Amino acid sequence: MPYLFVYRGPVIASGSRYVALGSSFAAGPGISPIVHPPAGRSGSNYAHLVAAELGLELTDVTYSGATTAHVLDTPQDDAPPQLDAVTPDTALVTITVGGNDLEYVGTFLRGSFLNTIAKPAVLLGRRVANRIRARVSYLKDDAAYQAVADSLTTVVERTQERAPNARILLVDYLTLVGPATRPRLDVPLNEEQLPSVAMMADGLADAFAKAAAATGADLIAASTASKDHAIGAPEPWTTGFTMLPPNLGGFVPYHPNAAGMHAVANLITERVRTS
């Protein structure tokens, strides 16, 4: 039987220029060392790990809180739009953004926070506690997910225009809620709220898949690879929930941990080396 080789993109030579675009799931807040505090950018995020492994010249403009608009054309704090970093000589670009367009992690955080403070609020009456819990809407309509898919498509197309020879990888989000995640025990959401967060994650992953199909960009499905490493799993690749800040022994909740960053970096380096 003849061997079929499928060519996926240009070979990335050592010393080539690599630009990392994205939000906090790419930046790595809370993972030591933090090399750019305003962005929450870690020197051990997946971009830095990939660059070190492949010998690439990295420009990392990932920024916590970034939306697709911050990548395309909107400054964030004092940082210019992230696409400004992509130049014609760029050989590799990774993109992890779109979750903040949906308020994905923000919704998870607000629900967890409100449920946590609602417990002592029961002392003031269940009506007060229920009002607190009711402040979060976990559902998005189809148009919201399509808007993210369209924006991601635009990000890739603009990247292709700026760097026609670049290999572009859409890297979706590590899974937070998986088969092992237990409501109330692993996260402070109940049996009705938790599946809604998982549905939002599925919609976000589908937006990445649509953008990859529309543009020909490679898809790194970190969401699929991490299903068995979600919150509550024996070896989670993301953090759980805490109300303690890092300086008091806490961590950045609902974000990749060091193991998760290494896992995503391995997915990327394997793809670059084998296709």
Automatic annotation (TrEMBL):
<dbReference type="InterPro" id="IPR036514">
    <property type="entry name" value="SGNH_hydro_sf"/>
</dbReference>
<dbReference type="Pfam" id="PF13472">
    <property type="entry name" value="Lipase_GDSL_2"/>
</dbReference>
<dbReference type="InterPro" id="IPR037460">
    <property type="entry name" value="SEST-like"/>
</dbReference>
<protein>
    <submittedName>
        <fullName>SGNH/GDSL hydrolase family protein</fullName>
    </submittedName>
</protein>
<dbReference type="GO" id="GO:0016787">
    <property type="term" value="F:hydrolase activity"/>
</dbReference>
<feature type="domain" description="SGNH hydrolase-type esterase">
    <location>
        <begin position="20"/>
        <end position="262"/>
    </location>
</feature>
<dbReference type="InterPro" id="IPR013830">
    <property type="entry name" value="SGNH_hydro"/>
</dbReference>
<keyword id="KW-0378">Hydrolase</keyword>
